[in-house]
Amino acid sequence: MKFDTPAGQNPIDQLRVVGKPTHRIDGPLKVTGTAPYAYEHHDVAPNAAYGFIVGAAIAKGRITSMDLKYAKAAPGVLAIVTAADAGPLGKGKFNTAKLLGGPEVDHYHQAIAIVVAETFEQARHAASLITVQYARAEGRFDLAAAKDDAGPSEPSATVGDFDQAYAAAPVKLDATYTTPDHSHAMMEPYATVAAWEGDQLTVWTSNQMIDWGRTDLATTLGIPAEKVRMVSPYIGGGFGGKLFLRSEAVMAALGARAAKRPVKVAMPRPFSINNTTHRPATIQLIRLGATPDGKITAFAHESWSGDQPGGGPEVAVQQSRLLYAGANRLIRTRLAVLDLPEGNAMRAPGEAPGMMALEIAMDEMAEKLGMDPVEFRIVNDTQVDPENPSRKFSQRQLVECLRQGAERFGWNRRNAKPGSVRDGRWLVGMGMAAAFRNNMNFTSGARVRLGDDGMVTVETDMTDIGTGSYTIIAQTAAEMMGVDLDRVVVRLGDSNFPVSSGSGGQFGANSSTSGVYAACVKLREAVAQRLGFNASEATFADGQVRSGNRSVALADAAKAGEIVAEDRMEWGDLEKTYQQSTFGAHFVEAAVDMATGETRIRRMLAVAAAGRILNPISARSQMIGAMTMGVGGALMEELAVDKRFGFFVNHDLAGYEVPVHADIPHLEVVFLDETDPIVSPMKAKGIGELGLCGVGAAVANAIYNATGVRVRDYPITLDKYL
Ligand code: MOS
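A: This is the predicted complex of the input protein with dioxothiomolybdenum(VI) ion.
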């Protein structure tokens, strides 16, 4: 099915199941510990051996020798695979550095060997007996030092004459902001169980994008994609870190081939942070010029980031192209080559650090203008793409989010003078920021079966990374087929199922449910045909199929045999004609201890406009999870770079700090009642990344309002108040 005209009324609009607060259907499996995560597929590989990955101990250079003798002789060892004996390996589309390094080493902890043994302990012990000699080369590890050598990258854009408009602007801001390298730090480690049957490989793994992962694994191993089955039914968080194939899946497959046994590999957390990807650090220069009444006349956002050779930038300027009006604009991206572990997508990639900078800049500019920061944003709202005014937004309720947020939060009680509100030894302040993230739609397929028992089974390779995909897909199928939720079975995360959008970029919810919608439209037609009903007149509700004065129980429709339908949703030009985006507003109250600089978040509110909310419970969970992550980015999260040896020093959760319950106050979330018929038949958009965009700056702005100290270098740790 192709979506190329705005959605009219359709069965989803009945909202009998869709849109209702629904607890996740996979919840009981998860809280009873019976949902199998990647490392827990004991049943499928009962005789599995254990693999332990050896990582490079230098960041750049060459392996000059590897002595495997003692490791091979160690108890329980079944096989050792290095680049020297792995055979030719291809490179997948989605990884930058090789997933098995050697003899060249591209980054610290790049995989250089796997040891397979009868037990995990034996594999780990044998790995410790491998001695590696290196010829270390000079590497580039410091973004600030590499900044001047950074080359032009995309996106870049100019509109009007920024330099002239900026020079002429009566009120100006010129400020530089920095964000550090971030780690996804998801709960479930990277893990894979690999098993070969002849030339057929099955991997049980933890991956957000089954089709990408399967294809890249096949490319890496040099085998046809049909020879690889990838299974990932439950995922303990990904945040973009599991969008792509990572080394543990490749190493498990190579280890299993060499050992002629299924092999299980889990990356220890202290290994994964330098072995896998991270969100790259940024340096961002923002220059704003405005008239005294607060109209932006000159807008420039430039960003610098670094990555491995052949990698890409952290696109921190993306949101700035569309968020505020302003006739003269300059958008510039610069990319430096660094030899740190490879950078890649982490939740709201580009948008999150970009908004962390932009929304402080907006706060600073409002102060220079003597304007309320909410009003300053409202004055500069745009209903069209500022770079291409003929392009409209499909929906844009930023102003409504800002106004409603200000009202609900009690923004009028804020004292605009920084450092002026005290509560005992605490300095208290309020801050806010806009939230803004684009909506993407990816082709997504599904198969739906109506069984002779009346059960509706959905199969798609869509993943659930903790977001609630199982539940919204079940809601969609229940709504379409007119049955209760408990009549629907959802099977996800298997490359034997139709290719879906996968989970990422907040495209998963709308895309995958639209694919299920398409398959259900076909199933309804097939059911009507089976019953001899006119498909265009048949209605599906209360477990009945009705047409004219005839009514048949859906369960009876398939008595003569299961009815199966498969389709996918593809998107036409509407996405190009209309800018599809999601909007919101974040409000934060923070308190800073006058003596110690300890910072506590007291209250947070987010108002979001993101199309139809398919499930208010799981959507709220996405928002509060993102807001929590935003507090982490504002106050704690930072990978510390060792600029001599080129690795992240705090490569575990003891040193890489993320918020815990005690750090997070009550979080309030409000969704505007919105449907977006330009987006899909679901009229829904993504929410998972919107919730993160702007939070960091709202915290920073609240801290400034509390203390009068403007910190432009994240995270805002207490030493920076001095
Ligand atoms: Mo997201 S960073 O596309 O999982």
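The radius of gyration is 27 Å. The chain has a mean pLDDT of 97.
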